[in-house]
Write a structure and sequence with these properties.
alpha/beta, ABC transporter transmembrane region fold, Rossmann fold, 2 domains, 6-stranded mixed sheet, 4-stranded antiparallel sheet
């Protein structure tokens, strides 16, 4: 419990650090809230004066009442203006704060290591940055709008009640701690429930995102019923935890109202006795009852605010978990820019594993000369893609080193290292925009003539010319209605235009028909000439021309040589190659 409370305090401190730059809005909001509350406290006094001017039948001070009504009208107008100022400033404060939190979260997302994204579904991350931040904004806005008003009203009414009748004031104050006790008890339970609600909602968002983005796979494998069943299970859990959270939070208002009504009844009873004894006027009792009601009312509102703040703090905690996640190791202070690379790659005694308990790559050694075409083959899970991740420095080796042009890649900036590689992967990535935008992504300054030449070299020009607006055709998310093969051709065109010094081709022609693949292989051969190239392939027929073939198994290179040399050796590669024709 102590740890949880400390966690809430840390979250609140973090929130206040975001609020601090907008302190002027907070100050104006507090001043306006104070003005509105104090003016509202003056109204019962005016009401009491008006009541005391009604002495009896035929004995009413109409002139005095008219003056009081004018004062009340002016007071109400001033209250409205002050409340508008409070709302305007608290809105500005809240949404500026929320904007900054989202901005920091997005910036942090860009520097998180690939391992974080591997462990956290995209939908959950989206839920943290959208749904949780919205929930936090609602709680923060409610807090600023009601919390300060409530506190000022409580202090003001307490002072005014003491001036009217100290004895009745003591009766009201004695019962007040009960409201705090009830609200505090409920708040302790609601924080845990709202935190669980946010977590379950994030899991549901991740599941929905997964099902929507892979709807073809779901339908192809007739997984619809299982998907609905999994959704129903999560949806039921979300319903149950939400009901429990709302149930506990909804107890706050009626419980505190009950305590406050008891206080109001006691004030009315004892106040009536004082009026009978002539120790308090009817107008004075009227004013005191109004103050007693105003004194207890903020406790209801503040208890409701506390409940909302519990939800807001729980949501903010999830967002800050993202913001506090360990970032990708920063580039070294003296990191240099890799340019005019020779493309000589060395891997020395490299060890790597995604998790400590499961070794993947052990004592890996490799030397690649400039312009060599290196093919990497092996069974699924042997470490082919992992090796690519290490070359691109998406992950760092646990032991040993990887060097380019004789220098450890950790001595280069990541941006320049990755810019030296051109990648065509089995999984295509196209952004929403025109065909032109997607092709020129790596070289925005390229001319249209260069773009078209690259498209022709990649055999993409013909299908692009058949599109409605040709190179100006707007593509939707992920390439829209283009086939998988057409998407891959655009990605190949992108590399053809950029012509980086080193290439990584990971099943680059997996979605292309055999006839087009032969043409692409010819284009790749021209593109790879003089460029260090790493080719990951399952279809061994596509890598016969490689200068060297690395055969990987269980994270180690067990064989290497040319296609003919490996076949003649009759080892693991020989078995892999001939297994494709059996």
């Amino acid at each position: 419990m102590k740890k949880k409370k400390q966690g809430q305090i840390d979250i609140i401190k973090r929130v206040l650090s975001y609020v601090k730059p907008y302190g002027i809005f907070l100050l104006i909001s507090v001043v306006c809230a104070a003005a509105a509350s104090l003016l509202a406290l003056f109204l019962p006094i005016l009401t009491g004066r008006a009541v005391d001017m009604i002495i009896g039948s035929g004995n009413v001070d109409f002139k005095g009442i008219a003056g009081v009504i004018k004062q009340m009208a002016a007071c109400i107008a001033a209250i409205s203006i002050a409340q508008w100022g409070t709302n305007a400033c608290s809105n500005r404060l809240t949404y500026n704060t929320v904007r900054d939190i989202r901005k920091d979260a997005m910036e942090k997302l860009q520097i998180l290591p690939l391992s974080y994204h591997d462990r956290h579904p995209a939908g959950e991350t989206v839920s943290r940055m959208i749904a949780d931040v919205d929930q936090f904004a609602d709680g923060l806005l409610l807090g600023f709008n009601q919390f300060f008003n409530g506190v000022i009203t409580i202090v003001g009414t307490l002072v005014l009640m003491l001036t009217l009748n100290p004895l009745l004031t003591i009766a009201v104050v004695v019962i007040t701690p009960l409201s705090f006790f009830v609200a505090g008890f409920i708040a302790k339970n609601t924080f845990t429930l709202f935190k669980r609600q946010s977590a379950v909602r994030g899991e549901q968002t991740a599941f929905i995102e997964e099902m929507c983005s892979n709807v073809k796979t779901v339908q192809a494998f007739s997984y619809e019923d299982e998907a609905v069943a999994r959704f129903d299970t999560g949806n039921e859990e979300l319903k149950n935890v939400s009901l429990r959270a709302i149930f506990f939070s909804s107890l706050t208002n009626p419980c505190t109202r009950f305590v406050n009504n008891v206080a109001y009844a006691l004030v009315a009873f004892f106040g009536a006795l004082l009026v009978v004894r002539g120790r308090l006027s009817v107008g004075g009792l009227s004013a005191f009852l109004s103050y007693a009601n105003q004194y207890t009312k903020p406790f209801n509102e503040i208890s409701g605010v506390i409940t909302e703040l519990q939800n807001a703090i729980a949501c903010a905690g999830r967002v800050f978990e993202l913001a506090e996640a360990e970032a990708e190791t920063a580039d070294a202070a003296d990191a240099c820019i890799l340019k005019d690379t020779e493309g000589i790659v060395d891997i020395a005694d490299a060890d790597f594993s995604y998790t400590p308990e499961r070794e993947l790559i052990k004592d890996l050694n490799l030397h690649v000369d400039r312009g060599q075409r290196i093919a990497i083959v092996g069974p699924t899970g042997c470490g082919k893609t992992t090796l690519i991740n290490l070359l691109m420095r998406f992950y760092d080796v646990d032991k040993g080193s990887i060097s380019v042009d004789g220098k450890d890649i950790r001595s280069y900036t990541r941006k320049s290292l990755r810019a030296a590689y051109g990648m065509v992967l089995q999984e295509t990535w196209l952004k929403p925009g025109t065909v032109r935008d997607n092709i020129k992504m790596g070289r925005p300054d390229a001319s249209d003539e260069e773009m078209i030449a690259a498209a022709k070299a990649a055999h993409a020009h013909s299908f692009i010319m058949q599109l409605k607006d040709r190179y100006d055709t707007v593509l939707g998310e992920g390439g829209g209605v283009l086939s998988q093969g057409q998407k891959q051709l655009l990605c190949i065109t992108r590399i053809m235009l950029n012509m980086p010094p080193m290439l990584i081709l990971d099943e680059a022609t997996s979605s292309i028909d055999t006839r087009t693949e032969l043409k692409i292989q010819d284009a790749f051969a021209r593109m790879m000439k003089g460029r260090t190239s790493f080719i990951v392939a399952h279809r061994l027929s596509t890598i016969k021309e490689a200068d060297r073939i690395l055969v990987m198994k269980d994270g180690n290179i067990i064989e290497q040589g040319t296609h003919i040399e490996l076949l003649d050796a009759g080892g693991f590669y020989h078995k892999l190659y001939h297994s494709q024709w059996e």
